[in-house]
Amino acid sequence: MPDRPAAPLPRTCVIGAGSSGLPVIKALLDRGLPVTCYERTPHVGGLWCIDNKRFGASAAYDSLHINTDTKLMEYQDFPMPEDLPAYPSHRQIHEYFRAYVGRFGLAEHIRFGVAVERCRRLDDGRWEVTLAGDERETFDALVIATGHHWDPQGPEPAPPGHFDGLQIHSHLYRNPGEPVDMRGRRIVVVGLGNSAVDIATELGSRAVAERVFLSVRRGAWILPKWVGGTPITRLPEPQRLFPWMPWQVTSLMMGLIMRLSVGRPSDYGLPMPDHRPLQSHPTVSQDLLSRIGHGDIAIKPPIRALDGDGVVFEDGSREPADVIVWCTGYRVSFPFLGPEVLEVSDNVVPLWTRTVLPGVDNLFFVGLYQPLGSIMQPAELQARVIGEYLLGHIAFPEEARMRRDIEAERRAMERRYLRSRRHTMQVDFGPFMHRLRRLLVDGRRLAAQPGSMRLGARHAAAPHTLETTP
């Protein structure tokens, strides 16, 4: 009896050639899996390529440097050059991604300048991907690696009143002269996250703006980049060494480090945080507290109202202002997915291990989380999980188990983090990496058991088609 011909390997579509999409392409190619990536810009690197700013795909600014050092940010199979500084600029990070693509021959699998308009799941379970110009292709699996820093969210609710000056979201900011000339002007920067702090610090130089006000809604712990000459992210971190360690131990250690190195936020006029260190995504800056201490940046409460040529704050004070920079975060959105697949509300995306949408066995998300560390190394592990799953080497638990795990994670996050849209995707770097590694181990055991979630052989049911509609 002749051997039955092997089913063709599943063909995968990856959306996005940034820091999360690139390791997926590599992981699938390493396993001999056919893959096509669509990148709507002409460049790799996503938000780290500042030339993507004109496509709305980059939140970078000219002075941007990473706030997680190279050892946490590099891919494990492609170390960053030893001559890079601990905290490289966005241009050096983009060059690293370009080198990664060249080293592993990824470019020929990426279609640049091609936007995905819609992804529709067919009756046989495969994905019909519609591109700009109504070109369509079918795939057995879909990986979404578009990130969550590209759809700017304005203030909610917006303050009442009218403002005569200019308003921009931090997503548009490139430097003190672009897209708005802020040199010699009075600026209000709203927020206390990493972008707000970087922008306020740059504009706060007396050689740039006339006056900078930093409007903050609540206190935050400001982590320095260096402690005793060592990058703070290279210090021994309990949860990274021991993933089972309670987060409170790391919180206690970070609190002690900050107290000894920079003091308390209130020492600089910032409101004291109403939470423990690491109960909120940390703000990392070596310069903000110095700027405040030198009087270059004035701290203000939230904006109560816009008032013509000025701004009224909640303490009743009023300051003349020329420009407001809203550093108010981003929406999580997937405009190419219909509501029958996924609806996102308040930035909540219910994913198992931040990777799998329960009930859909061939849809994966990579990099859709906020780690206390970098996105790159967890994304690299997610990519390996997806590759092993598509080959059938690992399996996932049943849908009911996934949903129970997601609910347990949601409750744990509510106990751990401040309630906000900012913390709907928060993960601890060490424990999350451990979970992904365990998934590879446990998944092999599950693959030998009946009833586990697996892709199946439906990709052999019909030929792949390419259709162009005039």
What does this structure look like?
By secondary structure, the protein is α/β, with parallel strands linked by helices. It folds into two domains: 12-151 and 331-468, FAD/NAD(P)-binding domain (3-Layer(bba) Sandwich); 161-326, 3-Layer(bba) Sandwich (FAD/NAD(P)-binding domain). It has ten helices and 24 strands. The protein has helices spanning 21-30, 70-73, 90-104, 194-203, 238-241, 247-261, 288-293, 376-390, 399-416, 429-447; strands spanning 12-15, 35-39, 110-112, 116-121, 127-131, 135-139, 141-144, 161-163, 166-169, 186-190, 211-215, 222-223, 226-227, 230-231, 283-284, 297-300, 303-308, 310-313, 318-320, 323-326, 363-365, 370-371, 426-427, 466-468. The chain has a five-stranded parallel sheet with strand order 3-2-1-7-21, covered by helices on one side. Strands 9-20-10-11-16 form a five-stranded parallel sheet. A four-stranded antiparallel sheet has the order 4-5-6-24, with no helix packed on it. The longest helix has 19 residues, at 429-447. The protein is globular and about 70 Å long. The chain starts with 11 loop residues before the first strand and ends with a strand. Mean pLDDT is 91; it is low at 456-470.
